[in-house]
């Protein structure tokens, strides 16, 4: 089983610890982006995974390739082109103060890449599973066209397609809104991942739940997933992440999954000292993709996804640098955090 | 509306993260002090504010001026004189271990400044609102005399005077105790801010509440504020900050306000992962001053103060580096800490 | 009263803050080990304490001696010999993710030290109290022989012997298991300290309590301590640490003590933002040893131990760098964490 | 005398010390750009100086304004507009390894600003001296048009215009080459600063000197400056910086000046442990502008410029954070570097 | 052309900047070792290179694999086995104070690996060029046996063998001295690299040159290389690095090469602000191996090696993170260190 | 032989690397002062040395004691009293830019200590050699009185007295000038150390040499030392440090010594990349004191002092953390800086 993920990776600049942006002299410089995060996580679980993106031809692009390769991802399909490396600045929140992202990702190499720039036959050669997100079609018209090309090509070749709907309200600035594009793209998706807001803002499917309140009514999520599955007959299953934001440090976290046969709900985790929650959804996606391939039961796959992404909240950076053993330990019920020596 | 604040600013030396003093090689070096913190915060809210202090004529004083100016405070009234820059060392606590302040502020330039060194006509030129605290009269006899001069001069000129009573038990070493001075100074104050201990230790007015317990009986605060207002007939309103210290990391936080017409109580915030609580009271003061000038209702002013100072607990350093939008977001009820992107 | 502790000290390498091992360029380099931690803590409380170990003859060993001496421990009995400095890597956990220790302590100077290398008459000259742990006999056969020699010699000389049973499952690799050795060694112990797992794994005495659950049934600990005391007639008292691991950040913490006359239970502390829990048990031991010598009542001694070790969880590194005043303040009931200035 | 400088300021990201880009987790984040560097330096010398640029409406732009204001520059004329903050990555060299700049400055707010976006009457209100560089017209066609507008408007208003020719070969990508624009722009310049390469690449005027060799034939510079002055009859004087690059750490440094009446040559400085040479030319410009206004003799002005910019090589960041006293000390012949205490 | 290098890689722990070991809290943690350094450098030049070593089965070993892979080296042949990761501590020198290495590399996984643990048929599958050093046979008897096995197997398979003699006086502790082993091993070497001391201490061939003086008499090196070539008839060429140590910061650096047909001498570089000289010899080796494969002339190959290794002295860490373009630039004569932008 | 040194130790605050004061968030916090530096250095050479000072009763004083004790100095004679810890800020220079010291040492505990506060019988108990400097009498009138008491008491007890004249022009502010005091104090000195400026400014003895030029005429120093010895008949010998300041990074360094029988001149060292020159003179003093006690010949003692203090310039902080072996290696002529492994 060989995996391919496709999308944008950015340079992430964050002040250390809880400093404000530019309060001190230093910024932590890492790389991250939804699809790259999934690729790194799959490689980290021992999967054979390739990552496709377009990077600038400069030292920043080179460093990005090295970072991805470090974690065992195949970088041979990465293309280098005109345009810049997208950047996002992350100012860390705490308590009632939210973390803030300042995007500086316009005119990136992948945003400038046009249909024709990527040879999908080559890109998909040997690939069994393809992962994309709702971010790529949001960054530019040409990236949207590439995204649609990619899922259609994958579908034609019989490749399983997974997609994290991932609605980003500050993108989608090129003239289309999210539902115009995503309702088309999702037709080609076998495995969908989303949160409640994604369903509503990307697909226009709304459940009567208050995502801002920090308290979730899980029962309504079966209805929501049924609605999505009804609307997209080729979709095999959909998983929803359930985040209850009580503060920047304290979140409830769980997931549910509907495979048309059954509705599954994961263990709920209370995370009380969040170290870094960016990439939590990506950690869920990669956990789910791994789980669906490694376990026979859907409950196990979902529990792996939930436990893996719960652990992400304790890791600095976008990448979920936990081992299978870490996840299995938590899945097995040990959330005690006792020192392992 | 132009504001002036007057008092001491110190060099603040704190080990990084949770290190003990001198456990590692490095100390975080910032600047802070009650009245400067208020000035920076007001400037940060877009107010026209000037800060008056006396600084030494050396590179440390120069750097201090730069830091204040960086945040948009008018530094043109700052005087340079004999004496040193006061310093405070801050060792961070956690859980049951309290943070500790070691003062090294004796013989500072402002402590040595004498009546006559400051021309109050010049200092108050164009000023509408003057802010002082109970710290300045505590540092030396001459600073006490300057403090009394300042509020009297302000009053004569029809300038609104606000004062944070701010009792500091390790100061007041020059021969007077706090009530001897503060009961006189407060006569000239229009807007007072205090906590329960300040009322008792500075004004000798006691409410039967246990400030150490971490649990506060709010009902008693109406009585307390009524007592203060009864004793100081020119005082227009008094606000009290309500801190419930459960541990170095977990505090309840709220405020109340009595304007002789009504007693207002703010939303109570539970802060569970305090990043830095020094300057919390100053953030309340500046929030209140801003709120009283920006909103028509006292409840709104109080809520702004409470929300602004709640957020301070998530910011490193004395200065409350949050935006009006951050405060309004929390006032509007969003304490979820969800990533803003 | 002069104290001696004997055992291994290691170089401790930990990434800063919550970084994964080798995620950044830097590692925090400190030193620590059970018996050294106890010595530093006793010196910190003003006790006259000497530390005995074997260190390599190189710059790493020199730095280790300096570090111990810095805190006022007498280092004149430390020997220098063949072998290396043991190292442990510590990867910090958070929430459901446990901290992890990677040991690199094989072939250390103390593991290679053989009976005959230490002259116990000299080592014990002037000593009244000797402290050892269950770690030293676990590291090598020769270290085990030295450990048995030490307690026998101490006993003969009428020196009080305290021992932290400290079971480490990844040691004991030289051919003996823990109970084979520890049941012998404990015969010479006057004051034993352990947790539930230590009693079971080191002495084979089991109480029906679930140490992994994070919830402890205190009542069962009286039975456990009675069992141990019954089996070891020369043991004067045993104290048990009670840790409830709810997560890597949140632990309940208390201790109990049985002196054959009475069963004492300490205050229970809820620690909600653990900074560093390594060395918590050692902080309990040193607090208890100090308490037994400084207070007349056992309850006070136990409370000192519990409060001291509670505070350790807020300190970076193995050493419990808190003052007697800090501990007495918490023992006195002030867990409010209010800034001390 | 009030000064205005106009141009782009960028976020500068440099790894600490001599690390490669992304070798460690951290990047030093400062701000810098030719015209901003000149403004900060003039403010630092106590001059009344305003800086004009266009910055994005986000937290990065806010931080940039704060940084400029910190040093006493008037930021009230800065405009906020569409587009991003330009960035440059700086990888430090040493010995034979050159420092490298990776530009990420396309689509910056100032590059997108169009004629009409800046009201030159307002911008020049109260201004006596205007400084611009050859970088601004190189970044985009619209910025070139603004640049030409600016010098023409300044000239009309009788404002002295200074210009650092500053040729950058990796800019000029919008369809014009440097001489096409610069030969026009320089017509309006009273005081020009350049190095040999600037003269050749920007104005097409070549002197037969080998700038790469690290050894300069000063005598040829009189001819070069005469040529420039001959070609631009309104130019009052031109100064040339003379850098002999022996390695990334060791440079010779001097300047010369031709005011049509006399040719002046400054003291030559040997700088053997360069800390940061970026901004050296800007430090010369600001030193010269200060010197021409502060001294009556041209030799003094030139010596001030040379000494000030010599000292810049010992300062981290783009800004020349030295005092007038530092410069006068070096001008006075004390290059001994003895500790001042 | 596919390359294989074989040897030990260690964790390298160095205090930042010029700190003494344990002067501050932090150590820079990187990885390095002669043969790994060569592999990383070849990968960096775009070569297809695999690295063979034995690493422990723990998180330190995992991080090491990631680091090697990051730079594009094939890590699939790396074996995991019993034993630890070797460590070396590096205390940086300056001026007259030498840098110091404290080895903690005994009992490493590769030192414990025995003949039979590595399947040389598999290891050499597809390999054209094999690189080894004189360090591996010095670390343990079994590693010596593996080293001899490796060169014999390579020779049999017609693989080109290169060897850096690399004498280390603090190794060779298992009962053999260097010449006993190296005179045998070198029989199988096609391309030898050494410095003067290596020839003498490893092969017993002495030239009358004073390596400590900082001044080298190049003429004697032709004689030395002739002697070596005479003694080892299968050796095709030998290159010698010529380091003149004037101080810890200032070295002369050059190389020479004798291919039995001609004696070549490279450009001599004066390096005056050494950033990190560890790995300089490895950078020469990898530069030479690249050069011999990329250029037709031996002079070019030697110049590439000399320039590449000259640049290494400006790079932190063992790895020579420079590009082919950097090296060609210096080979082309540009040692000016001018900022590239 | 037991040594005692007496004087002030300060907290030293320096920005990292080459940052300006307050350019970044961090300051390096170490401790240092002439007499403490000598004590640490002597302890470092294995001498039995005690350090006497007066420190404040707070956490800063505690940390200072720990730091001194770490290096093996006996701290049992240190007194704690009223007053603060003196501080000095150090801004690092480079090239032509001098390092700058900002003193904040007024009102320190030792400056406030009065005659009677120190029991000289107790202080000198068991002491054979006493070291003082010209700094202590410069800080306050009472410290001057204590200084005079100390040397008289020492002399009476037959203790050898050494003194580093150490003129500091920014001290001596209490009403006496240096010669008024020092000409008296030096009468009791057996071993004097000074530089040319000290002789002139402290004793009024001038040699016609230009200390600012960076070039020293050694021949004149014999005359100078003869003059001093003539004037102080009880002085047994005087040593002079010879610093040629070419820049902040490049100094020539040597020493000379006159013992009334012979004039000795040490090797001259060229230090070209100074890491930290503060404490260089103290390193010379401690090297000389060690040398006079360890070697029979004066030339050896002087060479040890010169080599030891040469090496200090490569060490961060006031303390000369080099070993006897390091010094002997340099004395032996090896200034090559070759890596020791």
Key features?
homohexamer, 341 residues, alpha/beta, 9-stranded mixed β-sheet, 4-stranded mixed β-sheet, 15 strands, 22% strand
Structure commentary:
6 copies of one chain form a homohexamer. Chain A is α/β, with parallel strands linked by helices and 341 residues long. The first copy, chain A, contains 12 helices and 15 strands. In chain A, a hairpin with an 8-residue loop joins strand 7 (87-91) and strand 8 (100-104). Chain A starts with a strand and ends in a 10-residue tail after the last helix. The model of chain A has no long low-confidence stretch (mean pLDDT 95). Chains A, B, C, D, E, F: Residues 5-311 form the Carbohydrate kinase PfkB domain.
Detail the topology: elements first, then pairings:
The structure is a homohexamer.
Chain A: E1 2-6, E2 10-14, E3 26-32, H1 34-44, E4 48-52, E5 54-56, H2 59-70, E6 79-81, E7 87-91, E8 100-104, H3 109-112, H4 120-123, E9 129-133, H5 136-139, H6 141-156, E10 160-164, H7 178-185, E11 191-194, H8 196-203, H9 219-231, E12 237-245, E13 251-258, E14 263-265, E15 269-271, H10 280-294, H11 298-312, H12 324-331
Parallel strand pairs in A: 1-4, 1-9, 2-7, 5-6, 9-10, 10-11, 11-12
Antiparallel strand pairs in A: 2-3, 7-8, 12-13, 13-14, 13-15
């Amino acid at each position: 089983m060989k995996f391919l993920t496709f999308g944008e990776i950015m340079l992430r600049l964050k002040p250390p610890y809880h400093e404000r942006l530019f309060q001190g002299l230093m910024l932590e410089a890492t790389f991250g982006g939804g699809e790259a995060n999934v690729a790194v996580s799959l490689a980290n679980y021992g999967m054979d995974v390739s990552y496709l993106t377009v990077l600038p031809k400069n030292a920043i692009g080179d460093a990005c390739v090295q970072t991805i390769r470090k974690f065992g991802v195949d970088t041979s399909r990465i293309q280098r082109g005109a345009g810049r490396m997208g950047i996002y600045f992350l100012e860390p929140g705490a308590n009632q103060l939210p973390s803030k992202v300042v995007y500086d990702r316009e005119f990136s190499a992948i945003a400038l890449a046009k249909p024709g720039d990527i040879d999908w036959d080559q890109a998909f050669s040997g690939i069994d599973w393809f992962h994309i997100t709702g971010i790529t079609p949001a960054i530019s018209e040409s990236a949207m066209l590439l995204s649609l090309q990619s899922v259609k090509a994958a579908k034609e070749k019989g490749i399983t397609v997974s997609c994290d709907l991932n609605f980003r309200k500050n993108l989608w600035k090129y003239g289309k809104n999210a539902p115009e594009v995503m309702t088309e793209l999702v037709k080609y998706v076998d495995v969908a991942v989303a949160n409640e807001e994604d369903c509503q803002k990307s697909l226009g499917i709304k459940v009567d739940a208050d995502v801002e309140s920090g308290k979730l009514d899980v029962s309504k999520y079966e209805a929501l997933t049924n609605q999505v599955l009804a609307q997209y007959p080729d979709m095999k299953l959909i998983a929803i992440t359930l985040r209850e934001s009580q503060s920047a440090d304290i979140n409830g976290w769980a997931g549910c999954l509907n495979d048309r046969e059954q509705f599954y709900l994961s263990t709920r985790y209370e995370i009380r000292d969040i170290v870094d929650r960016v990439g939590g959804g990506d950690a869920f996606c990669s956990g789910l993709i791994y789980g669906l391939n490694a376990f026979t039961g859907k409950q196990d796959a979902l529990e792996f996804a939930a436990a893996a992404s719960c652990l992400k909240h304790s890791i600095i950076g976008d990448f979920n640098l936990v081992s299978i053993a870490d996840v299995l330990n938590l899945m097995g019920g040990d959330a005690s955090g006792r020192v392992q020596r």
